[in-house]
Records
---
Amino acid sequence: MFTLDKVVPWGRSFEEYTAMFLLAEAEMAGRILGCGDGPAGFNAEATRRGARVVSCDPLYAFSNADIEARITATYEQVIDQTRQNQKEFVWEAITSVDELGKVRMAAMNAFLADYPAGLMEGRYVNAALPSLPFPTGDFDLALCSHLLFLYSQQLDEEFHHASLLELCRVAKEVRVFPLLALGGARSPYLEGSVEMLRTAGHNVSIQRVNYEFQRGACEMLRIQRADG
């Protein structure tokens, strides 16, 4: 079973973000928060296309060289785990472990090239859930990729609930992908989180998306804020 001891820096591409989160072109016109983006290439490419994106992650406390070193250290661990657990993944859009390595490194290299300028421009912010340094309603859309629910063993239910409420505070709409934990089981916190959010008055749905790499991970949680 694919497993990691802690949250690791591992980035996905702009194209993967648009598929994972069903991002329509019109939605890219709003102000977007990528929460827990790590070394993803989404901000770099979205900014190049004229979008207004802010990414936040505690990784951004580190220098470009430090992050590159952490990516290098993580790369072999993740690729080795993937190679040992290939049955947990869908090898269609990405056809092999070697291709996966190339795709992920291309996304992370796009991040590394953009990071120094993005840091100076305020597009990369050193911040972490469940407490974000942004005003209430600062974003039209918040995206959380491969953090909440995926790391259910490392991050407890209280953390999930506090983080989801915080994302709802700073954004009119929140989308979280995937809904499975590492290893492929549905997160044990999903049902309780949906109930908690609905009790708080938010409109919550689970939607199928145009993306599946981790087998069975083809749905996102969509939350529309009560006063959004």
Note: Residues 34 and 79 are 24 Å apart (CA to CA).
---
Amino acid sequence: MYCVRVYVDESGDLGFGPRASQYFVLAAIVVRDDQKIRRCFKKIRQRKLKKSLRDLPEFKFNNTKGLIKDPILQCIADCDLDITYAVLRKNQVHSRLRDKQQIIYNYLTGSLISKIAHQYATEGHIYVCIDKSTYSLERDHFDDYLTYRMFDDGAPNATSFDQLAIEHLDSRTEPCIQAADFVAGAVHQMYRENDETYYRIIEPRIAIALDFFQGRQK
């Protein structure tokens, strides 16, 4: 049975202190062939990294040099996938919500996954994989909320709660989550620094873009 596979990661933070990021970006890649992504990271590890660095536990956008970012993002853009993201302009968050990181994270994720479910409606399963180190600390509540948002919003062919599967995995063992991290990092850099260097590489693959609470919604 056909399965929509979605891998989610983020860039930025949900704090509101003086050192907090101005934006929070949640990225999700909708993957049709995850083996291509796995081969991407394996090939770059073998061909682009020094031998002493090949055993690094994972690739992270913020810790990777530009000479490596380019081929990783290009390889992601060449894979059979669609890119989606949601960006939060934190200065527009109401003061009463600023100490409720879990609620904000749940809302952003629910909005993005619900939009994906509508656009990629299927009679098969929707598999959502999230880095277990993210803000989904109360996992049972998060999973229930995500399921509620997806079905309450009425995804056209989503007729059974059993169709949604959610997994919280270690990003160090899942290259597809690492790919979502690079997408989130490229989008965040565009908003944070007005620098589209990396965003332009992945832009042709962007299918959904949600800007809270300003800008065009794609």
Note: The first helix runs from residue 34 to 47.
---
Amino acid sequence: MSDSVLLIGSGGHASVLLEMLIEHKINIMGYVSPSPASNHMLFSQYRWYQNDEDILQFDKATIKLVNGIGSLPGNTLRADFYTNYKILGYSFVTLVSKDAGVSRYATLDEGVQVMRGAIIQTGASVGYNSIVNTGSIVEHDCSIGSNNHIAPGVTISGQVTSQKNVHFGTGSSVIQSININENVIVGAGSTITKDVEENCICFPARITIKVRK
């Protein structure tokens, strides 16, 4: 990548992305955050910009943004930032860890981030501004929507489709050929075995068995 980048955020998610940028030897112009970075050792050598307005001083033709705002269920801050700065004409980096396994026949849209140990198989596609987090699996021919977060340890079987703004909680699983509509939260540890309507929250099944003495 020949462009320079500006990292947005200074929290845990941004820290992981910064380390990935360093490993890829990408030119980092600094980071933007209203508060100082908690990981001082990692961020100390980079310039700190405290306001979003500071981004506007950079030429959108020569710099790309890295969206280091974390993704939490029901929180639109990450998605809103992406949308607002796309409207202003900025582009976002698609970033894949060197320790991830992404098929050459998979498709990643703008701003997708793929973390260490993640696997994306052949024929899969991931929509813009989505995160495929640490150790998660997206199997063959899946279609993952925009602004999705596939949290650590998620397994998504083949030919699953998710629409926009879906959060797959840590350790959740989806069986093959399922359709998950927009604005869905798949709770941590849940197993999805049938299609999910929009604006739903899926909780793990809890079965209690009383043992007779």
Note: The longest helix spans residues 12-23.
---
Amino acid sequence: MSAEQTPLSIDVTMPREDVALVVVKGFLDVDTATELHHHLANQVHHGRRHLLLDLSAVPFMDSSGINIILRAYKETRQVEGSVGLIAPAPAVRRILDLTGVSLTVPSFASVDEALTGTSDTLSRP
């Protein structure tokens, strides 16, 4: 990691009992992706079926970050949960679109919109 990069910062809150809001700040790459995975796996382990990842302060993400998002998606689907991305930064949005991740994992403009989307997911048969 170069001196110019921001170290990864992860803050987790629970807006609802079954939802973890994970605010990620900094570069999400091969050096930091494992840390994010540990946070996400811990939330699923503790019964949070829905993970909301706020990526608005992530200026760069490589394939390691994409793999973590897809892995979290797979793990939450096994417990009838979901993953949602909140306000991905433009460079990250581009990567998500180019790789097709945005076709699988929904993005939301805000936490409130994501929580509404999560509620809709829960009410589907």
Note: Residues 9-123 form a domain with the Transcription Regulator spoIIAA fold (CATH 3.30.750.24).
